[in-house]
């Protein structure tokens, strides 16, 4: 594995529930390399999503450190964290998260609009991102005119359009049929093959088997599979 882009050093996250402390993530140490497709598996409630949130800077740990290229995310001010997520990190979610009244192209352009990219460049890069996931001809369609698999590919194009170093995917095939899930798995595999690190949490065994490395979460801790 090449030098780690994402790392965790004894990272933990606790929540209070009914007067008790629940450790959703407990003492995880991990390093993920450039271009690696790392797959996290485990039962619902095992801590997979919480770990993704910590590694991506969406949440802050109770103890330990989550690091992006050696930089401790918990020590960054919120403004810098937001910029990091906008420019260096992409997100793919189970529910797609597309804006229903915008076309596929307009949905993909949104992250570029937020960071101030000029409209001609936004249009060019959005079209290129859609082409890369095989949806160039569907650029003008709105989400309700697309299948579930097509909507997920739009969300992947949106995650890629800022040219991030890391893409986090939380149950990216969870709402898809088997054939479509395989196509999304192949797309994630291609992304990592092109040099983007992909960290995916999933129950999907086909996606788990496609990873360069598979780790299982059990009660907030990681075990090798």
Structure explained in plain terms:
The protein is of the alpha/beta class and 225 residues long. It is 35% helix and 29% strand. The chain has helices spanning 48-55, 78-87, 104-114, 119-132, 148-160, 178-193, 205-210, and strands at residues 4-17, 20-33, 37-41, 63-68, 71-72, 89-93, 166-170, 197-201, 213-218, 221-224. It has a six-stranded mixed beta sheet, sandwiched between helices. Strand 4 and strand 5 form a beta hairpin. The protein is globular and about 50 Å long. The mean pLDDT is 91.
Brief description of this entry?
This protein has helices at 48-55, 78-87, 104-114, 119-132, 148-160, 178-193, 205-210, and strands at 4-17, 20-33, 37-41, 63-68, 71-72, 89-93, 166-170, 197-201, 213-218, 221-224. With 225 residues, the protein is an alpha/beta fold.
Which residues form runs of ≥5 with pLDDT under 50? none
The number of E-state strands comes to 10
Q: How far apart lie the N and C ends? A: 17 Å
Widest sheet: strand ordering: 6-7-8-3-9-10
Question: What portion of residues is helical?
Answer: 25-40%
Structural class assignment = alpha/beta
Mass-distribution shape:
globular
Rg over CA atoms: 17 Å
Q: What portion of the residues fall into strands of 2 or more residues?
A: 25-35%
**Given the structure, what is the number of helices?**
7
**Kindly state the mean pLDDT as a whole number?**
91
Give me the oligomer status.
single chain
The largest β sheet comes out as: 6 strands, mixed
Reading the helices and strands in chain order gives: EEEHEEHEHHHEHEHEE
């Amino acid at each position: 594995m090449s030098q780690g882009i994402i790392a965790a050093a004894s990272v933990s996250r606790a929540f209070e529930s009914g007067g008790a402390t629940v450790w959703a993530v407990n003492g995880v140490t991990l390093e993920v390399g450039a271009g690696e497709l790392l797959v996290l598996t485990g039962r619902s409630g095992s801590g997979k999503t919480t770990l993704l949130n910590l590694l991506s800077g969406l949440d802050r740990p109770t103890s330990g450190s989550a690091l992006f290229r050696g930089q401790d995310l918990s020590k960054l001010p919120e403004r810098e964290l937001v910029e990091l997520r906008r420019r260096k990190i992409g997100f793919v979610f189970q529910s797609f998260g597309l804006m229903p009244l915008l076309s596929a192209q307009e949905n993909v352009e949104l992250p570029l609009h937020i960071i101030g990219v000029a409209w001609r460049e936004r249009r060019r890069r959005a079209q290129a991102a859609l082409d890369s996931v095989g949806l160039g001809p569907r650029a003008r369609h709105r989400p309700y005119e697309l299948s579930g698999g097509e909507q997920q590919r739009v969300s992947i194009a949106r995650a890629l359009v800022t040219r991030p170093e890391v893409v986090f995917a939380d149950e990216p095939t969870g709402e898809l049929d088997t054939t479509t899930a395989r196509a999304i798995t192949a797309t994630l595999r291609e992304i990592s093959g092109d040099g983007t690190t992909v960290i995916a949490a999933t129950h999907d065994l086909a996606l788990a088997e496609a990873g360069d490395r598979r780790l299982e979460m059990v009660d907030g801790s990681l075990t090798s599979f």
